[in-house]
Amino acid sequence: MFCDKPYFDRKHRRSIQRRTNSVKMFFRGTNILWMLIFWRSASGDDVTNAVTTDVTFTPIVPPPSTSSIIWKHRNNAGVVVKVIEWDQDDGRTEIPNHNFRAHASLNKHTGELTLTNLQLKHTGVYTIDINSKEQRKHFRLTVMDRVSKPDIKTNCDLENIPVCSLNCEGEASSKSTVIWQNSAGQTLNSRDPNMRTIKVTNSSNPEEFYTCTLKNAVSMETSDPVYEKKLFYGTNGPLIAILSTVIVVICLICGVCAAFCRRRA
User: Fold this and answer.
1) pLDDT in tens, the chain (265 residues)
2) What range(s) does the Ig-like domain occupy (predicted)?
C-alpha cells in the first residue's frame, strides 16, 4: 500500500518547520547573549566610594600606536569637562580643570585614571578618548559622605504604663538606613528601615539594652547602648542590678546547700 501523498507532504512540511523554528530560536538566543556582552562592555562600571578614598578606572588597553589620551567627566547636571589629557607630540600631561588638580593622575601605558582624596564634586560619569576617539566603556562614580556615629535621645513617660521614646540622631544622607536592635540582636524596625524613633516598654530586665545603627553604601556606625535600668529605674538602676546579682548568688548557694544536705541524709 502506498502512502497518501498529501498526508506525507504535510508531515514533511511540519518536520521542516520544527527544525527551522529550532534554528531561529538558537540564533535568537545567541544574538541576545552577544547583545548582553556588548552592553556590559559598553556600559562600563558603577562604583560607589566614600569621601577621601581613592579610585582607579581601567579602560580597554590602549593600542601601541596611542598618541593621545583624554579623560572627561560629566556631572549630574550634564556639564562635561576634561579631567586629564596627554599628548605624545609634546609629551605633557595636563589637568585643565581645577576640580581635579591634586586629585587626578594618568598611567600613559595602560590609560588608567586614578583619583585620590575623592570629594562629592567628583560624582559623575567618566569617559576616555584614545586618539581622539571616545571609547564605548564608561565609568559611573558616586561619592558619598560617611555616616556619623549616632546618639540615642530618650523621652520617657513612667506614669501608668511606663514607655520610652528612643530617637536615633546622627548625620546621614537620604540613602541611609536605620537599624534598631535589642540586646538579643533582634531587629525592631525590619518593616521600616527609615524609622528614626521607636517606643519601648519595661521588660523587667534592667540589663536589656537598645542600639541604633546608621548605614549607607560606604559606611556603618552604631550608637552606644541604652539600658532599661537607665530608662525605667533611674538612679536606682545600678542598685537594682547589684541586688539582682546578689539574689541569684544566694539562690545558687541555697541550692548547693540543699543538695549537700540531701546527700548526707
Assistant:
1) 444 555 545 555 666 666 666 645 544 554 444 343 333 434 568 999 999 999 999 998 888 889 999 999 999 999 999 999 999 998 899 999 999 999 999 999 999 999 999 999 999 999 999 999 999 999 999 999 999 999 999 999 888 788 999 999 998 777 899 999 999 999 999 889 889 999 999 998 999 999 999 999 999 999 999 999 999 886 444 444 455 566 767 777 777 776 667 666 6
2) 150-223
Residue 101 and residue 122 in contact, taking contact as beta carbons nearer than 8 Å: no
Mode of pairing for the β-strands spanning 133-144 and 45-50? parallel
pTM: 0.68
